[in-house]
Fold:
Amino acid sequence: MRAVALLGGVVLAVASISAGSDPVSAQSTVPSAGAPTFNKDVAPIVYSKCASCHREGEVAPMSLITYEQVRPWARAIKNKVVAREMPPWGADPKETLPMRNDVSLSDAQIQTLVAWVDAGAPRGNPADLPPAPTFTTGWTNGSEPDAILEMPVEFDIPAEGELGVQMFYSKVPWNEDRFAEVVELRPGNRAVVHHAGIFFVDIPEGARLVNGRIVDSEGKVIGDRGSSGLPSTEGSLPGSSKLLSWVPGRGLDHHRADVGKRIPAGKYVNWQMHYNPTGKPEKDRSRLGLWFNKVPVTHEVLIRQAGDPLATTKGGLSLYRAEYKEVEYKADPSSTRRSRSTPNIPPYVESWSLTGITPVTEDITLYAMSPHMHLRGKSLKWVVTYPDGREQTILSVPKFDFNWQFNYELAEPLRIPAGSKITGVGFYDNSPKNRWNPAPHLEVYWSEQSWDEMYQPFTEYSVDSQDLTKKAGTTTSSQQRQQR
Ligand code: HEC
Structure:
């Protein structure tokens, strides 16, 4: 058995498919010689590329496993695969480096499906049919995690109303930093979890946790979005505080065997949960599964946005351009954060640009990228400019789709030398041509709700000079402890 992890909270365990039929004894139900059949040619494709979502209880509207289920959809399947709309995968293959979690169909697979539909969608020889796939429920990663962290409380989601992002906190339950190769967030209730983010933070001195919320000495809840006294991530290397995001299409991140995400002892897990009421009262208690690295970790994964300085650039400021004009910064050398002066997106504009530029100030290795925008998000791409001026597009998502936000994991990690820059080129469509646009006549602000906008070209990398197997001279853990 081979476990193929797919995106979207599903795992497909595909029995290795053997083409074990004897061509001589095969009773031919094939109308035209050489045309692909369901049993021989199509079933292996739908099992491995479609069934993870197209089955009972999953996100897609219909099951696509048996001939009886697939046959009525033949025309629609042809249209969707030729348009490359199914399986969902946003990267333009012409402008994107190979990704190890690419779920899209090869040209040959598309041709097979098209030829099958055009030949009248024949069933073929029963002996050719591979065993149907089996699915695991539970963790998408297919095994029990080494550690499971749980939201500190079960949260009651009211039937109606608009909820801000709910902030919960729980203490990291061990005494020394650990590194995770695989992390997965499993919503307790997928009907209500709209998106979620997991971070590691410190809580303010004198504050304490009550029911998973931070309260100050007077018992007032602090640490909610928009309140003063937000827990700080100071003392961490910028970029180490974020663990992962859950949005439809993702929530399971694979790092590399010897490169992991730091789970820092002494910090608090900050569960940032965004719930959408369903019309009836609901409950959720989401869980985080961690699979630790099995070999010594040399480098830690840092997650930053294109546009923010490298995690190790002391005092660096973010660099963003809105409609090609530099966004202004606060003159605060202690902060690397972009000031709030990013202009709003005007009404009715069809193509409004926001670009972030990260100067690469030391050698790094790039692993993965994930675009996060909201309903006006139109396209996003990552371009690396090398010291000699050569430009390379690493990932291009030409038609950003809010419903499918993938983490694009490079098949081969990419070395980027000091003196390069990483540019995240984003466009927004606030016109009526954007079918998701809830209100083209309105100016769009930068904030949390899906009708507001975000620009988050998340970029995962490590700093080459780091070597966590050597105690002295590491860029992070030793210094961090001193700062704490
Ligand atoms: C990651 C999940 C996922 C995968 C993988 C996936 N689909 Fe889908 N598919 C969906 C969802 C969700 C919808 C309904 C919403 C939409 O159309 O986007 C859908 C819709 C469709 C439709 C249109 C149904 C209609 O009502 O018109 C077709 C046809 C289809 N898929 C075929 C396929 C085929 C063929 C594959 C594999 C080659 C595939 N899908 C893989 C999730 C998936």
Q: What stands out?
A: Residues 140-297+469-484 form a domain with the Jelly Rolls fold (CATH 2.60.120). Residues 9 and 140 are 6 Å apart (CA to CA).
